[in-house]
Amino acid sequence: MKKTEKVRFLTEAAMIAAIYCVLTVCLPFMTFGQVQCRIAEALTVLPVFMPAAVPGLFVGCVLSNAVGLAMGANVAGALDILVGALATGAAALLTRKWRHVRLRGLPVLSTLPPVVLNALVVGLELTVALYGWDARLYAINALAVGAGELIFATGGGLILYIALRGRLNGEKR
Known about the structure:
Elements: H1 3-25, H2 28-31, H3 53-71, H4 78-97, H5 112-131, H6 135-168
């Protein structure tokens, strides 16, 4: 990778991280807690277009969870800074890996890793942090987180994909 490519990669990753963080912390009542509707999750489709989105989403999630904790909004606590971000990072890797799988021209499968991983991982975090282990509460939390993810990661992500595909598909990445 040439120096200019490295600079571009880092710049793209940093911009995605910053946008993710701002979109998350500007509406803390929606983005932390049992029902999470993170508008920023629409950005989880970006690994379909660019590899820099993978670290960008991870760092953005770390930053937003840390800021949320500092604001007193992040109910899952310090554990969420790392564990929640690892779920987002793993989802971004899977999104990138499955970017060529299309359903009627759309990367629908690529939008599902954030839904599934965050539902399972963040649902578990919330259950343990708020109540201790309880299988019924875990199922409720996982479904609530998954519903928010489905709205924004899949619904919002596909809208963002449609808006960007003509602009970004011309570049090979």
